[in-house]
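Hi Y.,

Following your request, here is the sequence exactly as I used it, all 256 residues.
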Amino acid sequence: MQNSSLPKVSVLIPAYNEEKYILTTLNALLNQCYPNMEIIVADNASTDRTSFLVNKFIQDSRVAIPIILVHQQKQGTNYARECARQWATGDIIAQLDADCIPPPGWITKGVSVLCNNNKIVAVTGPYDYFDASFFVRASTLITQKIIYPLVNTLVQLTGNAAILIGGNTFILANILEKAGGYNTAFTFYGDDAELGKRLSRYGYVSYMPKLTLPSSSRRYKADGFWNTNKKYQSSFWKLVMDQDSLQHTIETKHPR
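Below is the corresponding structure, written out as tokens. Let me know if you'd prefer a different format.
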């Protein structure tokens, strides 16, 4: 049942070959304690059973929350997100990755930050890599919960950027529209930093350490901890220093 007294949230999920994770993610969304939401899954040219599983989930009579499955054949996270955004009807856009497991209060926390401060246009928070080694899990949590909030404040004071954690972000839909939506020139590394920079021109991008979201560590496992971390950090700081240089260093392949 929808509650019109609360802002409607559109949860956008880009999905490329997500048969291992997608049902867990969808079930976690059904357990959210937030009554006014819709879910839009953008199948990004998957070659596995992603679409089949989502369709079967939608057809389940027990599912009361509106769920839409759309298709985007051009591969890239931002192609999928932009495709999903075109179907969104919410006041707030929630970005969620298909390998994340949102806890019951995830949407409520994100919405409360946006609704209680009219200077904030987006709110983001850290990942907790639940299936990672102790070293990876601990080091990334320390970095995200202690260092990132300080860096986010600093770079916004200079007007050069803002930190966004791509699969754990809430954005005012009208601001995202004004900012031009998702930039499809960025298909993976650099896309979140570039969006954060554009959003920060319209207001403050809040980094909330308590908005922690469990996520798989598959990117680190696929490409190695140090190499993956280097790519994330390099893309962010290149954008802070010189956006044009980032345009020439984008890595388009999404690690799986």
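The chain has ten helices and nine strands.

Thanks again,
Q.
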